[in-house]
Structures are given as structure tokens and as C-alpha cells.
């Protein structure tokens, strides 16, 4: 059965990237049909609160990305609870698991990612929970209501946010991290060390290198990273490599098909090779970029500054740029005061900053990166150096 005869933009995935794209297309005056197909039955929602206030406050209200009515107001067809199972690239159609077929002029894959999990020998499987979707968050919320003792596996952003929320609610919580430091893939050592002390002072026990088969608790939250969703792209013969591979315009190896958000691996001037980023900034900015390309026909390179935030209790961590390849750092401010930033340098040049309770430096860093201002370690180390002045230089 074919449900729509007029091609237009078909967006697979009703997460941040997919929904932002649909509304950005209308903002860009795109007049053709726009369809969002979402495997989840829920009206599209914001994910960040799921591991923060939602858990800490025991909040049950959901923050939806847009009201239910706004889709109809913008003539956006939202199909919930149906999954695209196949892309027919020659016919320019997608097939859904309800047997329907939808034609497209442009197809955008905003498939997101799935949480990785692992078995825990001493905790019942139904109490070993991931934290990726609203359905997951409801289960974690229910666990927090009854559990006295929770294990968090993984000392990354989501694990630490969940742990801080549990501790705030008076639940005994232990974070088990396999690597030698917290958030090791994403932040510099100074911020890892600061966070370790902060969490311990705020009631979170943290254990490095534990044997998971020994862990006993009423339940566990597993935050050990995600696997990008690429199944239908792979099946359609699109290039994938830990994500759907796109070029600088965010097109896949088929020019009629784009990929954005958590599922896309893209080239960027902010790193030495292609990256896949999991952040609201990345999902939203890529959505706006593709909307502009489709609506105007202009073909330009995506170049937004990457940034991310994580609220762990009262600890506001913000990152600007991609700092994973840095080899030297310089601290701005006083670590002991609890408000500071760490400038990260690669080959003597500033590539980004990790900030703790220091939104001002974070914003300045983003503006510096956006302007392409080059700051060297020697310049930043000079007495009287001011990051803001570097911006106006
Ligand atoms: C708990 C949590 C807290 C977070 N906190 C922060 C934060 O503080 N700051 C920050 O910057 N980022 C944060 N993030 C990351 C951020 O939310 C994600 O990077 C962003 O939501 C990714 O959006 P997306 O649209 O690419 O993917 P998703 O939101 O995962 O959406 C993808 C959607 O596509 C659907 N889908 C997949 N395959 C199909 C198919 N074949 N057919 C139909 N639908 C399909 C999926 O079901 C899903 O609904 C957080 C993420 C989580 C999970």
C-alpha cells in the first residue's frame, strides 16, 4: 500500500535532529511535504532532562520538543510508532514495518544511537537498566523509588548525572568505572580529578577497575556508551563506519540521502579526522544546516563549533571544541574555588576548553573557535593574558 504519492522530505527518526530538521525546513520556507517517521510511539521529547532533573526531582513530566498541535500547524506529518525497515534507493521510497511505502525527494536519516548494555551476574536482568529513551527513564525512575542501593556502571556523563541524582535523593550509589579516570574519553584530567572529588564529597562512591561479576545492588544503571544506529543504511548499501559516513555537506554516499545527529560520522575542521558526536548542539546545528541546503539548493560545508554540557547535580561541566587530541593544558581560574576552565592545546595551538561552573569562559571559547582565532600556548601563558581580549584582537 502506498500512503503518499507526492515526494518531499522524509525524515527517519523523531529525536532532536529529526524534529529540529522538520521545523527548520518550514523556517527556511520549504513548501513541499515533510514527514517524520519515528519508531517511538511517544511524542518527540528532549533527552537531557532524563538523566538530570527528571531523576533528581522524581519528576514525571516530560519535556516535549514541540507541542502535538505544532506539527499540524506547520503541515508536518508525524508518524509515530512505526519503523522504516528498508530504503529503496532506485525507487526513492522507504518501506515501513506497517507495510506502507513512502516516497521521497530527499531522505534524511536521523536514527540516533542505542545504549550498549551488559549482564550483571548478581542483579536481576529487569533491574539492569539503560538510560537512553523516555521508556528507559521511566524504568530508572521506578527503580529510584524503591531501591536503597544502586550501582552505576560507567563513569561517563550519563552515569555521573544519574549517580548525582540518586545521591541527591538519598539513595546509596556506587559508580564503577573501568578506565583510570572519570569521563576519560571526553574531558581533560584536571576536570576528571575535580569531578571525582566533587562526587565523593556529595555522597557518590566511586570505584575504578572493579570486577562487575562481584557487584551486588538493588539495581544498576548502565552508562557505557552507545552504538550508532546504522541498520537500514547498511542494508541499503550506504557507507558506514561506526556511524553513517557523510561528506562535509552531510550527504551520505547517495546524494539524495543525508544523515545527521548521533548516527552520522562527518568531517570537521575541529578534529584531525571524521567524528561522530553525541550532543544537542550537533543534532540541532546539523538539522539546521541540512534544512538550509534542501530549502535553498545551496551546497555548503557544515562548520559549526562543537560544544556540550553536562549537569551533574550542581556541577555544570561545559566543553567547547574537540579536545580529545590535546597534549598540553593551561588552567584559567582557581580549581579550588570550584569555578575554572582548562584550555586544551594540540601542537601548541588552542583547540578547545573544558569548563567547570564557568559559563563565561565557555562562551568566549566558542566564539574564538567560531571566528577561527588562533591562540598559541605561548600567548596564553604570557602574564596578563585575557581570552576575551584574544577574541577582539
Ligand atoms: C539521558 C541523556 C542525557 C543527555 N544529556 C545531554 C546533555 O546534557 N547535553 C547534550 O548536549 N547532549 C545530551 N544528550 C545527548 C543528546 O540528547 C543526543 O545527542 C541527541 O538527542 C541526539 O539526537 P538524535 O536525533 O541524533 O538521536 P535520538 O534522539 O536518539 O533520536 C533517534 C530516533 O530515531 C528513531 N529511529 C531509529 N531507527 C529508526 C527507524 N528505522 N525508523 C524509525 N525511527 C527510527 C529512534 O527510535 C529515536 O527515536 C543526552 C542523551 C541522553 C540519552
TrEMBL record:
<dbReference type="Pfam" id="PF07992">
    <property type="entry name" value="Pyr_redox_2"/>
</dbReference>
<keyword id="KW-0560">Oxidoreductase</keyword>
<dbReference type="GO" id="GO:0016651">
    <property type="term" value="F:oxidoreductase activity, acting on NAD(P)H"/>
</dbReference>
<keyword id="KW-0285">Flavoprotein</keyword>
<dbReference type="InterPro" id="IPR036188">
    <property type="entry name" value="FAD/NAD-bd_sf"/>
</dbReference>
<dbReference type="InterPro" id="IPR023753">
    <property type="entry name" value="FAD/NAD-binding_dom"/>
</dbReference>
<feature type="domain" description="Reductase C-terminal">
    <location>
        <begin position="307"/>
        <end position="391"/>
    </location>
</feature>
<feature type="domain" description="FAD/NAD(P)-binding">
    <location>
        <begin position="9"/>
        <end position="287"/>
    </location>
</feature>
<dbReference type="InterPro" id="IPR028202">
    <property type="entry name" value="Reductase_C"/>
</dbReference>
<dbReference type="InterPro" id="IPR016156">
    <property type="entry name" value="FAD/NAD-linked_Rdtase_dimer_sf"/>
</dbReference>
<dbReference type="InterPro" id="IPR050446">
    <property type="entry name" value="FAD-oxidoreductase/Apoptosis"/>
</dbReference>
<protein>
    <submittedName>
        <fullName>NAD(P)-binding protein</fullName>
    </submittedName>
</protein>
<dbReference type="Pfam" id="PF14759">
    <property type="entry name" value="Reductase_C"/>
</dbReference>
<dbReference type="GO" id="GO:0005737">
    <property type="term" value="C:cytoplasm"/>
</dbReference>
<keyword id="KW-0274">FAD</keyword>
Amino acid at each position: 500500500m502506498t500512503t503518499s504519492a507526492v515526494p518531499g522530505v522524509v525524515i527517519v527518526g523523531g529525536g532532536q535532529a529529526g524534529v529540529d530538521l522538520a521545523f527548520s525546513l518550514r523556517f527556511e520556507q520549504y513548501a513541499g511535504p515533510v514527514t517524520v517517521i519515528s519508531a517511538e510511539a511517544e511524542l518527540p521529547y528532549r533527552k537531557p532532562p532524563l538523566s538530570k532533573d527528571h531523576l533528581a526531582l522524581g519528576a514525571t513530566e516530560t519535556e516535549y520538543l514541540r507541542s502535538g498541535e505544532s506539527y499540524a500547524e506547520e503541515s508536518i506529518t508525524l508518524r509515530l510508532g512505526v519503523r522504516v525497515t528498508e530504503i529503496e534507493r532506485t525507487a526513492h521510497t522507504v518501506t515501513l514495518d506497517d507495510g506502507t511505502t513512502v516516497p521521497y525527494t530527499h531522505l534524511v536519516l536521523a536514527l540516533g544511537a542505542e545504549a550498549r548494555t551488559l549482564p550483571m551476574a548478581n542483579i536481576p536482568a529487569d533491574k539492569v537498566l539503560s538510560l537512553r529513551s523516555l521508556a528507559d527513564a521511566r524504568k530508572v525512575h521506578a527503580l529510584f523509588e524503591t531501591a536503597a542501593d544502586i550501582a552505576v556502571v560507567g563513569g561517563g556523563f550519563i552515569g555521573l548525572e544519574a549517580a548525582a541524582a540518586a545521591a541527591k535523593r538519598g539513595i546509596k550509589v556506587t559508580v564503577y568505572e573501568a578506565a583510570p579516570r572519570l569521563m576519560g574519553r571526553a574531558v581533560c584530567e584536571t576536570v576528571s580529578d575535580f569531578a571525582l572529588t566533587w562526587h565523593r564529597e556529595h555522597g557518590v562512591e566511586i570505584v575504578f577497575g572493579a570486577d562487575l561479576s562481584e557487584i551486588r545492588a538493588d539495581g544498576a544503571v548502565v552508562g557505557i556508551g552507545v552504538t550508532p544506529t546504522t541498520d537500514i543504511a547498511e542494508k541499503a548499501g550506504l557507507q558506514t563506519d561506526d556511524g553513517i559516513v557523510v561528506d562535509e555537506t552531510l550527504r551520505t554516499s547517495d546524494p539524495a540521502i543525508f544523515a545527521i545527529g548521533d548516527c552520522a560520522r562527518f568531517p570537521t575542521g575541529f578534529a584531525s579526522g571524521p567524528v561522530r558526536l553525541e550532543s544537542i548542539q550537533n543534532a540541532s546545528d546539523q538539522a539546521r544546516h541540512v534544512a538550509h541546503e534542501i530549502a535553498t539548493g545551496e551546497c555548503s560545508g557544515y562548520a559549526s563549533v562543537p560544544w556540550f554540557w553536562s549537569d551533574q547535580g550542581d556541577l555544570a561541566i561545559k566543553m567547547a571544541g574537540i579536545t580529545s587530541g590535546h597534549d598540553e593544558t593551561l588552567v584559567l581560574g582557581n580549581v579550588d574555588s570550584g569555578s575554572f576552565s582548562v584550555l586544551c592545546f594540540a601542537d601548541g595551538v588552542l583547540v578547545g576548553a573544558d569548563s567547570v561552573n564557568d559559563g563565561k569562559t565557555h562562551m568566549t571559547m566558542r566564539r574564538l573557535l567560531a571566528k577561527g582565532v588562533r591562540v598559541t600556548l605561548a600567548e596564553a601563558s604570557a602574564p596578563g593574558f585575557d581570552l576575551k581580549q584574544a577574541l577582539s584582537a
